[in-house]
User: Fold this.
Amino acid sequence: MTGPGEAASKVLQVGALLPSLHQRLRDHYDVVLLDDQDEDYLDGHGAEFTAIATRAAVGVGKELIDRLPRLRVITSFGVGYDTIDVAAAAARGVKVSNTPDVLNDCVADLAVGGLIDVMRRMTDADRYVRRGEWRKAAYPLATKVSGKRVGVLGLGRIGRAIARRLEGFDIEIAYHSRRPVDDVPYVYVDSVDGLAAWSDALVVAASGGEGTRGLVSASTLEALGPAGHLVNIARGSVVDEPALVDALVNRRIAGAALDVFADEPDVPAGLLPLGNVLLLPHIASATHETREAMGDLVFRNLQRFLADGTLITPVEA
Ligand code: 8YV
Assistant:
């Protein structure tokens, strides 16, 4: 077993990281970027690494964990950890950290922006102006946002930040999550489809992973109905994507604002011609301020762990 001093020296970087984090890691540790190595590199060097730095979009599977017999910690850039095999890590006693809270504001801002954009058709109207169509006719009427009913699916830290913002629009809020929470004024609905049936718009803010795969199903979209809008800033996997495409193409729901997809960066071709869908390239946390805060938290988690074996923001297995 390596001691803490030795552990601090060698970090395996899995995937590209924010440039400032990449540099900071190199300034303090001996960092090896896995992407630059040969396939068999870890056969000879796997035992040298006690720490991994990665990002949520890339993650760490069991196979990689198995190739690093002295691994003690995985620090990840991103709040979601559905791409990290947390159970395999725990079975080996490997600790995992993520970057919660520091991105709540930006993700919630984008969710609300997406909701307003798609209900008011702002991006589509922008395209209309650019195509010169305003000269021929007024843009069609859209849907009022203020005062509507919004269902929040997943009332964690980000879901709550979204709900707080929506209160400012006099929106009535209800939610569904694994269990009701005590300290919010919102109505709990005990099924996803029940929440969708109640809602004018459904905002998906549940974490990804096997437990939530396909939680928003064809029947949920049916319940949301032809006047309903969907916003997803969580993970593409939470929504049955073929069912969503079908519902949008056939106007069984009114529109959607999507920042996440099942197979990023691939976006279902059927969505591309649709004016009632806002398509964003997974940018909810992508501001200078938030990404720097996420990078700082990754670095501080690693630094703390290598100093005393604890994490600032541990993921519970
Ligand atoms: C990041 C995210 O863009 O935090 C998350 O889980 O999905 C985003 O904030 C992404 O994870 C970075 O890899």
